[in-house]
Every structure is written in structure tokens, then in C-alpha cells.
Amino acid sequence: MEGTVTAFVLALTALGLSLVFGVMRIVNVAHGEFFMLGAVLAWGFTALIPELPFWGFMLALLAAPVCVAAIAVIADALVLRRLNYEPEATIVATIGLLYILQQSVLTLYGPNAQPVVAPISFRVVLPWFGYSGYKLVVIGAAALLLIGVWYAITRTKFGLVMRATQFDRETAQAFGVPVKLVYAAVFALGAALAAIAGVLVVPLQQAHYLMGLDPLLLSFIVVIIGGLDSLKGTVVAAFIIGLSDGIISMFFSPTLAKIIATLAVALVLVWRPQGLFGARAR
Amino acid sequence: MNPKSPIPASSKSVTRRSALKKLGAAAGAASALTLAPGFVRYAQAQSSAPIKLGFQVHSTGIGAAYGRWYDRTTQAAVALINEAGGISGRPIELVSEDDGTDPKRGAEVVEKFASQHKVDLVFGTLFSHVVIGAAPRAGELKMPYFVVSEGYHVASGALNRYVFQPGITDVRSQVSAMAPWIAGNLGKKVTMIFPDYAFGHDHRDFFSAAIEKQGGSIAALLPIPPTEASYTKYFPQIPADTEVIYHVMVGPGVLTFVKEMGEHFGSQRPQIFGFVDSLEAVDIASPGLEFLDGTYFWEANPRYAGPSQTEFDKFFREKVGVDANGASVSDPKDISTYSHMFGCWETLYVIKQAIEASGYQGPADRAKLIEATEAMTTFAAGNEHPQGDKTFDGKRHQCYGHQFISKVENQKLNVVHQTSIEDGMYENDTDYTKQAL
């Protein structure tokens, strides 16, 4: 159960990372900070109307990803585009972006963890222990979003254009695909997905300026296991990692779960460097 | 200029002329502006040059909530000491540096205090991993290092002769004093939930030993990595026959931790005993914490001013700006770290006492300062020691005081038991005085 929540949230976050890598060939080290920004902005938006926590949260769920996407577009225009999306240069640039975002939040928002009230609260009572009902909401919302993203990629014109760019950037450009625009949109979409995950998770945790590091690490684990440009692989790997984390933590120890996840990454890199579902490099 | 002047070394090389030049030229450099007028004034009366205290504070990182209150408490105590004429007639100049609650930066901050700020001594470090990371550097630099950390690392003998903890009782003593009460009133089969690093390990080792001495046993140990953000997955490991849950947690996730514990148990909970660290800087009336009613907490200093409040505590609250509920007087939602921050206040008064007793003039007298601190034996309760009276063991560099056990009733903490200093005494053979200075 706990694993299911982890799995869905992880799937959303890692999907953003995987999209950005798949289409733009950029390893976005600042991805976890978009997650953190989503959570911190959620606190900001819900604090605007403290008397209506439900609507405050709905506002956050809509507005926070939009704000984060806007920040991502700006970062794309100011930094990534100027580096010509060079894979090596962008890794260094996104590390810089990570620190800029993290330290700006520290400066503007402060070092304290702030709680956000869940939009609904009920307790699911099982015979031997209880459970927060909001976690079911997180699972439902994340599942809907995953289906939405899958639909957008496979069934819409934007998805087609995106896949074309992913498949071959030059040819797509030759066929009149506005590659720069697609890149900006994909980067924004990736950031927005992380931000939504952040908003969904924040009532379960608390908004804190250092909270982006863990999801970043887990997303990388998931994306490497699943295959860096395979969306299906990302989602499957998120479930493997999330559920095994929940189950192993429950029956053995959480530390063992982390050890196994890291070991899985090493094994995948040795035996199947393209990931479980990745295609071999062209 | 008197070249033998004991004023801080940074100003030794500065002549009156260059100081005045600086005054005129460096209009933008605030540091020069603050240094120069002070320097000119003290050139005549050397013994009134300020005592520079390096304050290593967790302004950011996982200790930020503690850092905020350590800072307020320290500022209040320094203002009070300066109003009353300073230390040996010299005012305190506080130099604060943030270490990000990070051991590596902690050591760098100590270094910076020694080489750049040239402070007389350093104090205020809280988180045990930072203390353990920074204390060896303080020893190498022969920099007196007064920590306010609770950890057993000072008294254990693991650190060095320059490190003291005179303002707050260590964890080993705290848990030794708690165990008899827990075994006698709550139950003997205990499951411990604690952070998986030095501070938590102190709890694990010494509480386990203390409860076994009372005829109790440990049902399970649940160490939690310090960066954990979600705790639900740990709770199923609590054995069903547990009579008492003993929890202690630190960091930004504490509210989540306690909330999730409530979701897990609902109304069918075993007895719960926590160290108030699990809820420092958190409002006990937060939504989701209703289940805590009827559970117990260790407190070093009662957060809620109850019927047993002393006049010293009243004075301390007023000066720091804390209301009767343990929150800031300017913001009732800003809850203090009341069971820890008094340690800064009391440490500053111990430093004052040590400097005055040793006749300390400047860094050359540091050995005298160390020996004068080691010679102390008791601190009487008073405005200088508002938490209560304490004994001090000069060989272990550690103080020992009273502890409190409070029950949560109507989402407030009410003191139900106060331990004696003897309850928290233990045997060990640490003797820092044998180390060379």
C-alpha cells in the first residue's frame, strides 16, 4: 500500500525526467528541484486561502505546475538553448540550475519545513492498523495523470511531433517541425509533471527546500532500470522500485530496500545498459 | 599603539592612520566601518575590548528550526550580559556563522572562526553529527568549543580537552533517568524508534541498557535514516506485544512522523513515550496529533508554563520572547525548541563565569580558561540557570541536571514527574584533564 503511493508518485516524477531525456537528450539534474518547487508553491497557494483548504489545494494543483513550467521555459531559453543542448554542457548547467533553484527557495521561503493540510482527511481503518485516506487520492490522481500523459503522447498531434523530434531531430526539422518550440514544451511538461508529483505528495510530507534530492535519486534509478528513453519502461520500473520498496520495507528493513534498488541499477548497467525496455543506441 | 595590547589580533597590524583611512575609503565595506571605530575607542582602554564569541548556528539545513531559536536565545542572553556590564567589564561581540547543519561545513566554520574572525572561543553547536565532525578541528586549533548538543559524545571521552557541554544534560543521563519511571508506570516491553546516527545511537545503547536494568526488555529497534520523509512503512515492524513505544526523532520530518504514527495506531495504541525532540518547534495542537492525548514526553524544560513554573523560567521566557505556551510572543504559530534552547543561555553564563574566574585576557590565556571551566562543580538555579540547578563534572566536561516527564492533556504538556540529578548519574572513566593542553 505504502509502496503503491511511492510507485505512482515516482512514476510521475521519473516520467518527466525520461521525457526530457528521450526528446532532448538532456540529463536534467535539476529535475528534483522542480518537484520541490511544486511542493513549496503548493504551500504558498494554500496559504493564500487558509480558510478553504480544499479549494486552496485545488488552486495549488492547477497553478503550481503552471508556475514551475514557466520557470522551466525561462531556464530553457536562458540556459539550455544557449548551450545548443550539448549533453555534457547541459549536465553541468542543470547542476547549476539545481543550486540556483534550491538556494533561491532557501532565500525566499526560508529553511523551515511547512506542513500543508490535505484537501480531504479520513482514516481507512484496517483490523490491525489504520491508514491515511488521502493516500488513496494520491494514487487515483497520479493514475489519471499517467493515462493523460500516455494519451497525449500517443494520440495527439503534439505527441506525434514530439515523437518525431525524439526519433530524429534533423529530419523532423526538415519536415517543418518547430524543434525549438517542441524542446521548450517538453522541458516545461517534464518540469510540470515533477511539480504535480510535488503538490500531491506535500500533504503527506512537508514542504522543505532540500526535499528535491531524494526524488531525483529515485527518478534516476527508475529511469536507468527502465531504459532512458522508454516511457513504458519508466512506468514499469517505477512500479518495480516503488512496490519492492514498500514490500521489502514492510517485511525486512527500509535500508535493505534501498540497497536492493541500487544493486538493481548496477546489475542493469552491467547486463543490459540500455535498460529493461530501452532500444539499443542507434 | 601598544604592541602588547591583548585586543584581537586582527587589529594588531592596524595603525590609527590606516584605521582612519579605512573609515574614509571603505564606505561600502560595512566590516571596516564596524571594526574601525571600535578599534580607536579601545586603543586607550585595552581591557574593555570586546570578547569575541563565535556562534556556530544551524540557520539552514535540517537543524534550521533549532537554529532559529538558539539564535534568539543567544541574542537575548548576550544583550542581557552586555547590559549588565559584559564579561570582566568587556562587552560580548557575537559573530554568527551558519554551518548548514552539515559536519563538513561545521569543521570549516570552526576554522573560519579561528583564522578569519579570530574569536576568543566558539559555542552553540547542536546536532551531534556536526559536533563530532567539527570538534576534532577545534581541538587541533586549540579553540575552546562549548557545544549545546545533548549528545553523549562529550562525556564519553570521544572528543578532546577543548570541548565542553556545560549547559545541557547528555542523552545517557537523560535516558537513565527516564527508564525507571517508564518501567514503573508504562510497561516493560519497549519498542524504540530513533534516528539512525550518533544521537539516536546514544538513545538506543543507553536506554536499552537502562530499561534492562529495570527488568524490562526491548521488543524491537527501529532505526530511521535521518533523511527519511515518510515513516508509514516502518510502523508494521512494531511487534504486537509491545507495551511501550519509545520514540525520538529530529529534522524537518518530525510532524509527519508523529502524524503517521497516529494514522497507524488510531485509538488502539500501546503506551507511547517520546522525547520531545520528536515535536520540538511543532504545535502539539496541530491537526492529526489528537491521538497524542494521554501519551508522555520527556522534556528538559517544560514548554507550557504550569503551576510549578519558577520565577527564573518566567524571567527567561520574557527575555527570549516566549509565551506561556512555548510559542513566540510575536507569532503564536512559531513554536520554540524549549527543551534545548535554554542550553545556549546557560552555556553563555558558564562562559562568563569561566572567563572571569580565569582572568582570561586573550587567546594566549586559553589554557587558563579550560582549567577554570574544569574546576567548576555546581551551578545554582537562578536567572543565569533558569532550567534549574546542575552539577558539573570537570573530568567529563559535562553537566547534569533535572529532567521532566509531561503528559499530553487537552493538547498541552503538563509536567507529571521531575527527576533528581542522582537519577541520571552513571559510571564512566572519562578524564579529559589528563590530556595535554
The helix/strand series of chain B, from N terminus to C terminus, equals: HHEHEHEHEEHEHEEHEEHHHEEEEE
* Outline type of chain A: globular
Low-confidence stretches of chain B: 1-12, 22-45
Class based on secondary structure composition and strand pairing of chain A: mainly alpha
Helical percent range of chain A?
A: over 70%
Biggest chain contact: A-B, 32 and 33 residues
Number of domains of chain B: 2
Count, helices of chain B: 11
SS elements, strand count of chain B = 15
Q: Roughly how many Å is the radius of gyration of chain A?
A: 19 Å
CATH class of the largest domain in chain B: Alpha Beta
In order across it, which strands form the biggest sheet of chain A? 1-2
Numbering strands along the chain, what is their spatial order in the largest sheet of chain B? 7-6-8-9-10-14-15
How many DSSP helices of chain A?
11
Explained architecture:
The complex is a heterodimer of chains A (282) and B (437). Chain A has helices at 2-24, 31-48, 53-80, 87-109, 134-155, 157-167, 169-174, 179-201, 213-226, 231-251, 254-271, and strands spanning 123-125, 130-132. Chain A is mostly helical. Chain A has one domain. Chain A has a two-stranded antiparallel ribbon. In chain A, strand 1 and strand 2 form a beta hairpin. In chain A, helix 1 runs antiparallel to helix 10 (231-251), helix 2 (31-48) packs across helix 9 and helix 9 packs across helix 11. Chain A is globular, with a radius of gyration of 19 Å. Chain A starts with a helix and ends in an 11-residue tail after the last helix. Chain B has 437 residues and is an alpha/beta fold. Chain B folds into two domains: 9-170 and 341-400, Response regulator (Rossmann fold), CATH 3.40.50.2300; 171-307 and 402-424, Response regulator (Rossmann fold). The interface between A and B is medium-sized, with 32 and 33 residues. Chain A: It comes from Dongia mobilis. Chain A: One of its GO terms (cellular component) is plasma membrane. Chain A: InterPro entries: ABC_transp_permease, BCAA_transport_permease. Chain A: Belongs to the binding-protein-dependent transport system permease family. LivHM subfamily.
